[in-house]
Amino acid sequence: MALTVIPNPLFLPFEAVRLGRIVTNIDQPSEGYHEPFSAEPPTSIVSEFNYAGHNQEDSRATFGSTLTSLLSAAFNKRSKSEIRMEPRCCKAYALDNSDAWIDRAIGHEKTRQWIERAAIRGSKMFLIVGICTLTDTRFLQTSVKEQGSQGQVTVPVSLSLAAAGAVVPLAGLVDPSAHGSFARFASNGTRIFAPGEQVCAVQYREIGYKWLSSRVIENVRLSKTRQWSCTEGNRRNAYDSEDEDDEYVIKVDIKDTENMGSGWDAVESEEGVIYIRP
After folding, report:
1. Which tens digits make up the pLDDT trace of 18-46?
2. Which pTM was predicted?
3. What are 42-62's pLDDT values in tens digits?
4. 114 φ, ψ (degrees, to nearest 5)
């Protein structure tokens, strides 16, 4: 099963993340990535999911409700105010046949070189196989802290969302003043509208790799899609060989990651675990 991660910031523009991209930082899928070249762009499977439902046959919440609950909790924690999300639409984009896509991708020299350089640095690599989005999301701030007799509050809504790491377009919206009649807005609930489609979660499969000596590979076929003679750097010390003429070979594979380890909060849904930074 693919690894589902809520990135940081909590929302990313839809154009900033693409299926089939190879990344080294699952927190920031729009940084330090490689976009494999292909004559045929990756095929996606698009579906909508319910963000408020609950499966009565399973004690775990639906994927959509778990995801939006985690996002709301993260906004509340980071902005130090109560914020609830109300998206108009939730969509999931899945990469069709990720194994076939990675085979096509690493058939190109530039992708192989990028993978080699990342492997030499010891970086983990991940393939984006899924994107979850929320469209036309309304943020409802239901409670804020007040200061003084004139209803001055500690954090305006726009600053609260910015502190939470949300990419929320605010052009044309009226942010309530931090003075005077703001208490009236706070008591009734303040809404901010984020138009368009925003990425709220990314799904990955890990690209594993290992270094091999061609002399210890019987009947090695370097024409195989997922192993080739290295062109970047020198990994002769990665295997037991003292022959300077020995070739060094990198072999890659695509696999699912079952455990993210420490530094992450993991919450189960009926469709798998969702990870988020605490």
Report:
1. 999 999 999 899 998 999 987 677 889 99
2. 0.80
3. 889 999 987 664 444 445 678
4. -65, -45
